Amino acid sequence: MNWGSDRGHGKRRIELNEYLDGLYGYAMVLSRNSTDAEDLVQETGLRALRGMQRLRTGESAKAWLFTILRNIWLNHLRHRRTTPEIVELNSPEGQANEPKDQSHDPHAEYINKMEREQVRFTIQKLPLEYREIIILREYEELSYQEIADLLSCPIGTVMSRLARARLRLRGVLAQCSQPLPLAWI
What we know:
Helix content: 55-70%
CATH topology of the largest domain: Rna Polymerase Sigma Factor, Chain: A
Strand content: under 5%
Number of domains: 2
Order of helices and strands: EEHHHHHHH
CATH architecture of the largest domain: Orthogonal Bundle
CATH class of the largest domain: Mainly Alpha
Strand order of the largest sheet: 1-2
Number of helices: 7
Distance between the termini: 34 Å
């Protein structure tokens, strides 16, 4: 689905479909509820469509969409004042951003799947500020600057929060019975 605008700073187009899985995964991290996550993504799409003229040339469409989603979520929190529900990680919606394994060895595929599930499960146990930063950096691959802009904090805060999140994640995973190869942490 191409979204575009001829208003404002010139013609700009976004291929929204390429961001849907990432937006949904981030919405799940924030809301921990598949229905709320779907609503957040839908509302993000609508607001992006209405505000397309505000996306400047050269600005990252991905970071812009994630910022819209996060702002919508924060507004919902202010209005609802409820705690999010816990998501069952074995459900299909908990696997939206799972990387594809290119290995053809069934045992290796199984081990990789189990390791990814264990890391996902452990990430869900982290406090929101750590969960959010890990997902934005490691799964969505946003730059430190994009994360800083999205979270409205200095880049140094992003870096230190990410370091603390990785340290906490390592600590929890180290307590597990089987050590995992965590090259990206």
